[in-house]
Task: structure prediction
Amino acid sequence: MTLFKNTIVSFLILSFITGCSASRHAIIAGDSELTDAQVCRNYLNDKDILAKSYTAENTDEANYIYALNREVKYRALTQYKCEILAAQDRKEIAQDVVAAVVAVGVVVLAVAAAGAGGSNNYSSGYAWDQFYDGNYNLVWRCRDKSTGQFAYNSACSGQYQNDNTWTGK
Result:
């Protein structure tokens, strides 16, 4: 089950990463697979350093500024277009995350219904029994369906307390 949880967490992390801005090296390299939304995220995050009055701190930064300006102009992106693209991108990421969470929920429910992961649910072979104890108090206890022996009440957790299996008090 731990491997399953780690896989889900990794998937969610990757969902967030793929929608982020591009690395500076990808911008400098002129990576043709960059989306407009990725270029826009860089533009919106770094528009202050794109100003003509800004002086680059080193050669890598100067190359990045030049390359980002080149990509923005080549793609005819404006601040307004970039804000719209970034908003759409955030919405798509949010929808993907919701879909992933729903998918995880469905899988978790299916695993729980199958009795995997050590949970004791309806298919576990346990049921609630209501009866009078030695002091004439009406009590609920969990029983093993196959033997009728008392079990830990946690074995019946998640089940409605009904007395349909052992009807006699």
